[in-house]
Design goal:
By secondary structure, this protein is of the alpha+beta class. About 45% of the residues lie in helices and about 15% in strands.
């Protein structure tokens, strides 16, 4: 039987699980299924194109910074072939390129594989179909192994696995994942005279479509469309082509790379020309005879030309932040793992950073802002009395209400692990109403001490906690007629019959039931015990039932007449509760038989159940954080306007403190042209009754608004109908419980469906961008200083104060390790108080330029003093134990000899300068790490920073002691190392002074300009604002 096909204990509704047997329906035999599989294939969807590891690796070479390094690599190898450069320098640049691209490729490939694993698990859903040797065995089959002609059994809660015709029974299905319509649609068998031509007409009441959810009923369908031939599959195929705009970070990096390329090429040409100008003219005193003699010395000219070319290459290598691609890949990867722990799965690396730039977020309501399930919050009786729990209702109405809710539902209820209620074979309305009958643990403890509790439930054993059983034995309850709910009728009804005296609750509360229990006339052979009672239970929209009510029932079980005034009062109560965001379902009973077309008349109104899709506990706080972060949140929902507005007011999207105050419906949007919609976007809070096309239009118009490159737009979605908008958005968030196609179209998957996880993604995105800016500031300071030193060195008598291999050591080792150091920075909630950055805003801000230039000049001046000041040279004038020409190293540039080294201070002095430059640049990392004066701020949350900085110092000492010919170094003494550590720390107090005076004075001037009144008033404003000013100065512009 079908129930035996559920190994995990899912229970089918009694009396309905063998419907297909009663209809004599036969499915495919195993042999027929095999033949169909060979002829037409299975039901698998077209797999998205998977990029291999090596293809991803090649894609990562499409980076302007990598292009510049590749140019330098080619030049170095050419010079090495001619004997003017060491091949090791080329290998150094090559290793830098490989590391940068490999880290990014590995991280993205690994996370894509994780996503594929999740998708494969999601695709292993099984469905119940008729197979076997004779085609009569109910068998669970994976949905991708369904074939044409398969007969599938559909029950409440199932997801339709393919497109097909209803051949027996009827179901109510939710097709919102296909068309955005949240209301259920009834599907049933239709006798057709001709073949169906349009198999993709969602309004066809005789067809069901893949991706729909069965909310109620049971039916048998025959599959006639599979995989990409289904409506669901066709949409999936259409979404394989992406037209997404470039991510903001990619735009910023391209702009930065173009700027760096221009400056580096200009600098390379300038330094090469300047060096040759010095060698050709200045060193020869502008004397024509000496110049001609110099030119006639081909070897010397070749030496100087190669030296100039090497200097140009060094400038390019200095200017290009080789470690930046590596650093970005490392930072994105580290934060990707942190986000996964917070239930955020990042599919595309740049999607994290883009979320930090969000300016407007279009989000669903159900399941994201709210919990996604309706919970009963109160029952309003026909006499307008409200009861929050079933226990507060007097016994007469309590018994009748419980009986009607239970008898009108085919749901089986079970408590798993003695805590969580589980509903099987139910729709959302059934489950919501049944929740009202169940008590929590506190109520059980309270009721055990008293005799008054609803007899629907009992405690089987005093020592067993809260075991629940239904009071209605449904095997004795006969369903005579079912009228299913539809969006057109807006009500459902059921007529049931049961034997006389079978239910104690009816016997003991006969006073409450007497007015509408219809006693069927006994047959001549029937005994009194076999006489049946009949009752018709009606549920639906209050306005539908109220119009048919002639009387109501009081809480004590007495009837009272409902005239027009009483009906108006009840309707007014319903309207006031609806305005608070509650959904109301009226319940009534009647003695009349049910008809399919008309609502029964002479209904006795019990009251209305108030259901609420409760907002998540953290939704209000999330909206507040988003507002502080400058992110406009627009709630896009299929709910009616009143409900959506009530939820928006509850979470703070609407109200006195909100900057948004416009609520529109889909029809309102359709009546507006694009210009009008863009004009209301800054104040838009809610879009009700929204269609999928509305989402795509809103994304498109938001991206085109805001001036410049447009706003950075985010979109959430869970259905395949959302996929187009998800594709268009700058960053898209798919819900973990959503359709697989929506996840494929997204950048980020929110595994727990919570808005708070999206806020976490925004915070981590901003943290990543702050980290990138810190690294750019750190590296740019080094590049500026090294370029100035290389440029000025020849004019001070040092052709190569830093060799190419030494600069590669600076960029490769120190910058790669610095990427790890900065990449471990924690997500500071303070970042959510900063405004979002425009998509075309440059990475380097004016404040960063001040830091780069100031500290770069400081390092340059200190380096020049180190090279030229005699007292410093005297500290490192130690002679080596052997002649310079006998040292086991040669300069890798092949343009220096022993005489040149001796002339430039000797190997000890040049080793000391190389180490000094490394140390002073590394010390500057403490300045860059935080804009605060407290350099230890939050350093405990990034202990890796201390470890990495210490490692850089350690590695530099080790390589100088052991580097030899590779790095043009000799071992230094302990005293010399101490001198270097002390001298290199000067950059720290310098930057503290810069932060204290320059940054604070700039902020103070802005405050003075804003402050009015007298001089004393301005001073008072400054003093009162010092704390906030320093806090503001902590932000990177």
């Amino acid at each position: 039987s079908p129930s035996q096909a559920y190994p995990n204990g899912v229970v089918t509704c009694a009396g309905r699980g063998d419907m297909w047997k009663n209809a004599n329906i036969v499915g495919l035999t195993d042999a027929e299924a095999d033949r169909s599989m060979k002829l037409s294939g299975g039901n698998d969807l077209p797999a998205p194109e998977v990029t291999s590891f090596w293809d991803k690796y090649k894609e990562n070479f499409d980076d302007p910074l990598i292009h510049i390094l590749c140019v330098a690599l080619v030049v170095i190898f050419c010079l090495a072939l001619l004997g003017y450069a060491e091949i090791m320098e080329g290998f150094g640049i090559a290793i830098s390129i490989i590391i940068s691209t490999m880290v990014a490729t590995y991280s993205e490939f690994k996370n894509e594989n994780s996503f594929r694993t999740l998708q494969e698990k999601a695709s292993k859903i099984r469905t119940l179909c008729l197979r076997g040797p004779e085609g009569k065995s109910a068998t669970q089959v994976p949905i991708d192994l369904l074939v044409l002609g398969d007969v599938v059994i559909l029950q409440a809660g199932d997801r339709v696995p393919a497109d097909g015709m209803i051949v027996s029974g009827s179901v109510s299905v939710n097709q919102s994942s296909l068309n955005g319509e949240s209301s259920a649609v009834e599907k049933l068998r239709i006798q057709r005279q001709a073949k169906v031509e349009d198999k993709k007409d969602l309004s066809d009441s005789g067809r069901v479509f893949r991706g729909s959810i069965v909310e109620d009923g049971e039916a048998v369908m025959q599959v006639d469309a599979l995989g990409r031939q289904t409506v669901f599959g066709a949409l999936a195929v259409s979404l394989t082509v992406s037209d997404k705009r470039k991510q903001p970070l990619k735009m910023k990096l391209e702009a930065l790379a173009q700027t760096i390329a221009k400056l580096s090429y200009m600098g390379a040409i300038l330094i090469a020309v300047s060096f040759l100008f010095k060698q050709f003219l200045m060193d020869n005193g502008f004397d024509r005879t000496r110049i001609l003699a110099y030119i006639s010395n081909v070897g010397l000219v070749t030496h100087d030309v190669v030296t100039g070319l090497m200097l140009a290459i060094i400038v390019v290598v200095c200017a290009v932040p080789e470690g930046l691609p590596t650093m970005i890949a490392v930072v994105l990867s580290l934060n990707m793992q942190r986000l996964l722990a917070d239930q955020v799965l990042v599919r595309h690396l740049l999607g994290i950073e883009t979320s930090g730039c969000l300016q407007i977020l279009f989000t669903d309501k159900t399941g994201t802002i709210t919990e996604g399930s309706f919970t009963p919050c109160a029952f309003v009786s026909a006499s307008l009395q409200s009861f929050e729990t079933i226990h507060e209702i007097p016994k007469g109405l309590q018994s009748l209400l419980g009986f009607c809710i239970d008898a009108s539902s085919s749901t089986v209820v079970r408590r798993s692990n003695r805590s969580k209620l589980e509903f099987f074979g139910s729709n959302t309305t059934d489950a919501s109403l049944l929740k009202f009958l169940y008590k929590n643990k506190k109520e059980y403890k309270k009721e055990r001490k008293s005799a008054r509790y609803h007899e629907s439930f009992h405690i089987d054993r005093p020592d067993e906690k809260y075991k629940i059983s239904s009071h209605i034995d449904k095997t004795r309850l006969r369903v005579l007629k079912d009228v299913r709910f539809s969006s057109q009728k807006k009500y459902s009804a059921r007529q049931v019959a049961f034997p006389f005296n079978v239910y104690r609750t009816v016997r003991e509360n006969r006073h409450s039931y007497r007015a509408f229990l219809h006693k069927s006339p006994p047959t001549s052979s029937a005994s009194k015990e076999e006489t049946e009672y009949r009752i018709s239970i009606v549920r639906g929209a209050p306005e539908i039932l109220i119009s048919k009510c002639q009387s109501g029932i009081k809480p004590n079980g007495d009837l009272f007449p409902m005239d027009s005034y009483a009906r108006q009062d009840f309707q007014a109560k319903v309207d006031s509760l609806s305005a608070k965001g509650q959904r109301l379902i009226a319940l009534g009973v009647t003695r009349e038989n049910l008809e399919d077309k008309d609502v029964p008349s002479n209904i006795v109104l019990l009251g209305a159940m108030c259901l609420v899709d409760r907002t998540r506990e953290d939704s209000v706080e999330c909206i507040r954080k988003a507002t502080e972060a400058g992110v406009q949140v627009v709630m896009v929902t299929g709910d009616k306007l009143e409900t959506a507005a009530a939820v928006a007011r509850e979470i703070g999207l609407l109200g006195a403190s909100s900057k948004t105050d416009i609520v529109v419906t889909s029809s309102d949007l359709r009546a507006m042209n694009d210009t009008k919609v863009q004009s209301i976007l800054p104040r838009l809070a809610v879009v009700a009754r929204a269609l999928p096309s509305d989402k795509s239009r809103l994304v498109r118009l938001a991206q085109a608004s805001g001036g410049g490159a447009g706003k950075v737009v985010g979109m959430t979605g869970d259905g395949i109908n959302d996929s187009a908008a998800l594709k268009m958005a700058d960053v898209s968030f798919a819900m973990g419980s959503g359709a697989e196609v929506a996840k494929e179209a997204s950048d980020i998957v929110i595994l727990d469906n919570r808005l708070s996880s999206i806020i976490s993604a925004i915070l981590y995105g901003r943290t990543i961008f702050k980290t990138i800016r810190k690294f750019v500031m750190f590296q740019s300071t080094i590049n500026l200083a090294s370029t100035c030193i290389v440029f000025m060195g020849p004019f001070m008598g040092f052709d190569f104060p830093l060799t190419l291999i030494q600069l590669l050591w600076v960029n490769l080792v120190m910058d790669t390790l610095a990427a790890l150091a900065f990449g471990g920075e924690s997500a500071d909630p303070h970042y959510l108080q900063d405004p979002p950055l425009a998509r075309d805003q440059p990475i380097i801000s004016p404040k960063m330029w001040r830091s780069i230039v100031s500290n770069g000049i400081c390092i340059t001046i200190c380096s020049i003093l180190f090279l030229t000041w005699d007292p410093i040279q005297a500290l490192f004038a130690r002679p080596v134990s052997v002649e310079i020409r006998d040292l086991p190293f040669k300069d890798t540039a092949k343009v220096e000899d022993a005489r040149d080294l001796r002339k430039q201070g000797g190997p000890v002095f040049l080793t000391a300068f190389f180490s000094f430059f490394i140390f002073i640049c590394t010390a500057n990392a403490w300045n860059v790490r935080t804009p605060k004066l407290d350099l230890l701020h939050n350093v405990g949350k990034n202990k890796g920073f201390i470890v990495v900085i210490s490692a850089i110092f350690t590695l530099q000492i080790a390589f100088c002691q052991l580097g030899g010919s590779l790095l043009r170094t000799v071992p230094l003494t302990l005293r010399e190392w101490i001198y270097l550590l002390i001298m290199s720390s000067i950059v720290i107090p310098f930057d503290l002074l810069r932060k204290s005076f320059f940054e604070f004075s700039t902020s103070s001037l802005r405050i003075i300009r804003r402050a009015g009144g007298t001089y004393e008033g301005k001073i008072r404003v400054i003093l009162d604002s010092m704390d906030s000013t320093m806090a503001a100065s902590e932000k990177i512009d």
